[in-house]
Fold:
Amino acid sequence: MIATLERRNFPVDELRALASSRSAGQTITFRGKPVTVQALGADSFAGVELALFSAGGNISKEYGPIAAKAGALVVDNSSAWRMDADTPLVIPEVNIAAAKDRKRGIIANPNCSTIQMLVALKPLHDAAGIKHIVVSTYQATSGKGHAAVTELLEQSRDVLAGKKADPKVFPIAIAFNAVSDWKAGEQDYSEEEWKMVNETRKILGDPTLAISPTTVRVPVVNAHSESVHVQFTRPMSPEEAKRLLAHAPGVQLHDAAYAPGKHPHALEASGTDAVHVGRIRADIGVPGALNLWIVGDNLRKGAALNAVQIAEAVLAT
Amino acid sequence: MIATLERRNFPVDELRALASSRSAGQTITFRGKPVTVQALGADSFAGVELALFSAGGNISKEYGPIAAKAGALVVDNSSAWRMDADTPLVIPEVNIAAAKDRKRGIIANPNCSTIQMLVALKPLHDAAGIKHIVVSTYQATSGKGHAAVTELLEQSRDVLAGKKADPKVFPIAIAFNAVSDWKAGEQDYSEEEWKMVNETRKILGDPTLAISPTTVRVPVVNAHSESVHVQFTRPMSPEEAKRLLAHAPGVQLHDAAYAPGKHPHALEASGTDAVHVGRIRADIGVPGALNLWIVGDNLRKGAALNAVQIAEAVLAT
Structure:
């Protein structure tokens, strides 16, 4: 988040770094200068114009309203406020208008998998009305935090050395495997799958949109990939989709013909701001439907970048 | 293939190991006894009752008919004869009756991704008529051969040591990535994707069945996983699907409620004969549709095991 503020030359007068009392006193660097971490408290937000929250749902639930009451625009990276009826859930390229109606002074940042999917699909939705999305994800370990990345790398090392993987952060081995490690939600779906359903419906403003999600973690460090099948209310050709996405905000279109390895992929997308869309194909079985391959950096557009872009867009108005 | 013959106590009088002249003279072990590899030639099949081919499409194209003419039942693991109208394409649990009509004396073994999907879906198809399949795969490197597995492991080692991946077998880095590395087919699909479409249509006997495939390679050594969305001609509940799959041939049903890591996965399925089916969920958006997670050992049921099972079934009749 802090790197994103730096990289985008966000107009910061004073950066206040707030964390638990455990981290208080540590020093971070912002624009080459040291910033001492302060313990988060009820009086932390005096004079703050923008509060970026990325410390888990419970902290956001408690301190988001406190920061908003102190006058800050709150942009919350957790899932705490996403489905709250009085909190807009915003992807700037998709529904920035919703940001105006922030009754609580809080704007929620969507789930990483949802953000990259909707940056890619919104221009198609506007043109032809999406009827049904089937999405299967190939999600990176960085989405589960730093410890998860470390575990992937350590497990990989262990397995390569002939040792057994020793899962701690993940429920089962993630090295050289493909697993669903998210908490259980209703009806045998994972919470991550429900986030993709509910957040997509809220952001697109269609509470009954048909979405069939399967979220899967793969042994990738950073950047999520998604295999997406989309049906529309009228036929859409790959050519039309490519035209719509060629200059769509936040999208980098990969429109080369398919050849082995010729498509966006996680290693290449990691460390970039764009949502990469490739492998746009006319569906073989359903006339007018499309299949796409969508890759994005879940820590950038899927998290910090989107949050900072929300702040940029709101503060500019 | 040879390990499978051993493991299943296949009634072998004499095992003839045929390979290129380069490998001739090498020794392999079958049932504890040495077998000298012979150079494949036009007269290799005299007296042979069963010829199992697994040496690439060109060898199968040339020598399959020669072996059949010499009186052998040919079971071919390559893609050479799969779509030939006079060659049955057989998964014993799914369409063993088709094996009877082998005009060329050749029976083709389907693609690994197709086999595991159809072992799982056939009982559902029989009950409710499949209308549309959307499948996204998470395929292991062993499907591309031994050199591909070695490359995954070496690349992983390199990356963990801070070196750059150096792709040779794969078109781009496979370690810590998710890629489509198959040859290009028509309409921007990969050949692997067309195999899933055409072979499924042939095996189920429905030449227009709607299938929307996306095939993806992940950094897994062995065992393919598949995220499958299925629509039927009449609604099917997860409960009915579980009843149908509980005792289905070749299927191991995982019907525990979803919890993190509680589902079949590649590491666990590798080295097993069954097709593992789990995460059977009622679709959120399309009433009566299902989502499933299907995992199978692509070298066993996806290749050698299925070929040997075809031979067992045909020779038993």
About this structure: Chain B touches chain A through 64 residues (CB under 8 Å). Residues 57 and 78 of chain B are 5 Å apart (CA to CA).
